[in-house]
Amino acid sequence: GTLDISVDGYTAGTEHDVLGVGGVATLAGTLDVTTLGSFTPTPASTVQFLTASSFAGAFGTANLPTLSGSNSFVRQQNATNETLVTVAVADCAMPEVLQWANSVIGFSSEWSTHWFGSVQMLGAPNVSVYGVNKYGWTASAQNGSVEHVTLGFATPVFASGVTIREHNGNGFVTQVDVVDMDDVLHTVWTGSDPSAQSAGIVNFLVEWAQTSYLVKGVRVYVDMDTTADWEQIDAVQLRGSQGPISQWADHVLGFSSHWSASSFSADQ
């Protein structure tokens, strides 16, 4: 069978349907929720549509409507009622983590161990004017090679992009790899860097589909023959999220049986 619930607001009985069961409600079949045209979703508001002394079983299918304004219904069930909670989709999303490199994992070459060295790529940008600057990394030779620098980040993330701040000889990035938790390199981008020298300092953003594995480092490849000048990087920023939220169950959607409605129950 099908339980049809119409929702036009958050007031029980007058703005949405409620089914009250005096004893145990045995759930099965389909829950079909529809909203009327005048319904306006309000995040965190609830629609309690089913009450009973206890529940057995579960709906085989639940058809919930798409709500306006990037909101959605989430079902919650406890020992005596089932409720639709309005949630904003944005509230369910993991916040994006943006972080500048905080360690040097390795490099193919650097001009020195300090000035113009790989350590100059750590932290937030500190070069404000386009041109050769000791506060940025460059290779040991001005031309004739493809170099790379691998940087580490404090918080491992499921990575989706990187920003490379170029401040001299722009347009030199040829490849980006990421480093997983087992120190395995994965190539996430290869291509032509469109950063123009005439644009001055450029924050070159490379994006890809979010990785299914945690990333703790980034390797940037640099073509030192892009210009006759010194190609330089000021800083590198990794972006991503820390992944799915781990949480304990907070309500019962249904069950085939339990020992009682209190002790040894599914609520326990």
What does this protein structure show overall?
The chain is elongated. The protein has one helix at 89-92; strands at residues 2-7, 19-20, 24-27, 30-35, 46-51, 54-57, 61-63, 71-77, 81-88, 97-100, 103-107, 146-168, 173-180, 185-190, 202-207, 214-223, 232-241. The mean pLDDT is 91. The strands form 4 sheets. Strands 10, 11, 12, 13, 14, 15, 16 and 17 form an 8-stranded antiparallel sheet that branches. It has a 4-stranded mixed sheet with strand order 2-5-9-8. It is 1% helix and 44% strand. The longest helix has 4 residues, at 89-92. Strand 8 (71-77) and strand 9 (81-88) form a beta hairpin. The chain has 1 helix and 17 strands. By secondary structure, the protein is mostly beta strands.
Oligomer: single chain
- H-E string: EEEEEEEEEHEEEEEEEE
Shape: elongated
Radius of gyration, in angstroms, nearest whole number: 28 Å
- Main β-sheet, in a few words? 8 strands, antiparallel
Low-confidence stretches: none
Overall pLDDT level: 91
Beta-strand share of residues: 35-45%
Number of helices: 1
Residues in helices, as a percent range:
under 10%
Q: Total strand count, please? A: 17
Distance between the termini: 30 Å
Structural class: mainly beta
